[in-house]
Amino acid sequence: MPEKPEVITVVKSLKQKILEDTIHSVDVYWDNIIASNLDDFKRNIKNQKIHDITTRGKWLVFHLDKDVLLIHLRMEGKFTFRKAGDILNKHEHVVFHLDDDVELRFHDVRKFGKMYLIDKNNYLNEVPLKNMGLEYNDKNLTSDYLYEKLKTKTIPIKTSLLDQSIITGIGNIYDDEILFMSGINPKKNSNKITKKECQKIIDNTYIVLEKAIKAGGTTIKSFTSEEGVHGLFQHQLLVHGKKNDVCPNCNNPIEIIKINGRSTYFCSKCQK
Ligand SMILES: [Zn+2]
Question: Could you tell me the distance, in angstroms and rounded to a whole number, from the CA of residue 256 to the centre of ligand 1?
């Protein structure tokens, strides 16, 4: 699943191609991807220009004339560029008709992707962004903030870091890396995390996400942010995905467990 660095990689590559393009119309072949009212979505998006593309958490935010178009890639959503008239792939579920007969197509094998079209003056106060937590690089992300959020939670810290209403943008891969770098056992209860550990988590979240963004994200399994776009951070991962491998610090075998259904990689010696 794409996390913050992968989403930023997608945005960078889209911006090079479609900034200041107009969305002339949109065709939707799988209705459930559109979370807003479908007819309104199709009607209102017409003839709006794409002025900027940013991110909020793992959402792509297309800033149009009147509205924002929010897109979440979920498991395997990605974009392809085609010319008008090119044969539609069966996994291309939404087609945006742009300038010069270019089509931006949303390709999603799992069909879990989601799109909203919302008034640009109010979108931060509406679903899905209204309860979003702090970004990894927000200066309000302090040990006091994180400690307050965690102190009432009895769930594992691994699960709390996936909670987008606390820190947004972290997914399964970077979660494992952050906890390894912080020397914290992923099973540790959130309310047992000290303020000092909160600071370690915040610092390492920043370090690992910045590094991953520089590397263009992580390419594993089926995820590529866009056709022909491959991140390189998988070569810098310390524990996540390291089956039959040893800890880079102590040579202890890396352990794999499930926490709340998510595969979790860690070193039981280094992460007490
Ligand atoms: Zn170790």
Answer: 13
pTM value is: 0.93
Please give the distance, rounded to the nearest whole angstrom, from the Cα atom of residue 230 to the centre of ligand 1: 29
Catalytic residue among 111, 187, 211, 262: 262
**Choosing from 56, 58, 105, 200, which is the catalytic residue?**
58
**207: three-class secondary structure by DSSP:** helix
What does the pLDDT look like over 181-205, one tens digit per residue? 999 999 999 999 999 999 999 999 9
* Environment of ion ligand 1 (residues, CB < 5 A): 247, 249-250, 252, 267, 269-270
Q: Which residues pair with 92 in a beta bridge?
A: 107
In the structure, what pLDDT confidence band is assigned to residue 222 with cuts at 50, 70 and 90?
A: very low
List the beta bridge partners of residue 78: 107
Q: Which domains does the chain have, with CATH numbers?
A: 4-125 (3.20.190.10), 134-266 (1.10.8.50)
